[in-house]
From TrEMBL:
Keywords of this entry: ATP-binding, Kinase, Nucleotide-binding, Transferase
UniProt cross-references to Pfam families, sorted A to Z: APH
Organism, as annotated: Fodinibius salinus
Record-stated family: Belongs to the methylthioribose kinase family.
Entries under PANTHER family matching the protein: METHYLTHIORIBOSE KINASE (PTHR34273)
GO molecular function: ATP binding; kinase activity
Keyword Cell membrane recorded: no
Gene3D superfamilies documented for this protein: 3.90.1200.10, Phosphorylase Kinase, domain 1
Annotated protein name in UniProt: 5-Methylthioribose kinase, methionine salvage pathway
Domain Aminoglycoside phosphotransferase, residue spans: 24-254
InterPro entries documented for this protein: Aminoglycoside_PTrfase (IPR002575), Kinase-like_dom_sf (IPR011009)
Amino acid sequence: MLSKQQILKIVSEKLPDFEPESSLQSLEGGNLNHVWRLKGSSRNLILKMAPPYIAANPEVPLDPKRIQFESKALQLFGNRELLNPLASREIRPPKHVFYDNKQHLLATEDLGHLPDISRLSNTEISPQQAGRRLGSFIGNIHRLSYNDLDLKKQFTNTSIQKTRREVQYNAAAEYAQRGGGTELKAIQSETQKLGKDLLESGCCLIMGDLWPSSILIDNDKLRIIDWEFSHFGRPLQDVGHFAAHCWMLAHTSSEANRKKMFRELWQYFWESYQEGTESNFSHLYDNQEYRDTTTHIGAEILIRAAGSFKNGYVYDGYDKGHPMVKEAVEQAASLIRADNLSDLWQADFK
């Protein structure tokens, strides 16, 4: 791993006019990478360096080249690039500053200290506004990139998909067992099949990691960060990922109005997503995509409620016998067998 002095040297080489006004400040919340803020006289930077493992789980290896996919994804929103029309005041990713391919170091604009979408009730934006903007944004990315052969060559992020297969899909039945689940053979069969299928190239560019920590709120605006999982894949890994986290946020909320808020957030997202994909929706979402979306939702709930990514999230602190964990595992198992997104909200847990 580079020292802070070595990182500052790279910054000075890439940005000779940049004048640091602070030392590197480590930021919390980065699961995949080491992240720092560097204050400057005219602007601040966010620096991300990818180690050859998941930063929050060093025992899980991960290709450090993943950060180049974030660099390429952010540049797609630049001037005269394919996704530039989608970047607006209301919603956009951070601006790309530079990328050092040798050291796997990415610099982006500093968006500041912003709450993520799990804090939606304390911000100026409503569930309807947030859901519709985000759904339209993701839907349009899928639509504009649909069957784009050039993007397919650029964004074949196979190493990430292999890691997801091993850590999320192949291990789903084990996580269910930890949480007191049953029907383990059915869970194993469905999730392992999905993990294998997702190693194949898909049909559109996906953001890949659409969970609360990637969706920041700046007053009435949304900012989408952490694009390392971007991949020419299948819509389910964006749609299903966001759906799973809306459900988990609702499930673990003690207040009825917050449960309602996260359910509405999902509903507005899904409506706007379909509108954003326009005539390509039927190509992006056939019956198999619906079935695989619910399987992904179940797998994501399992890894968060009883698996490798439980710590630091909404089920942290609950032991495996706690009713909240049991309910989440039951819901995950039900969704893995489902074929309709409406099944996401069938269970009314108290």
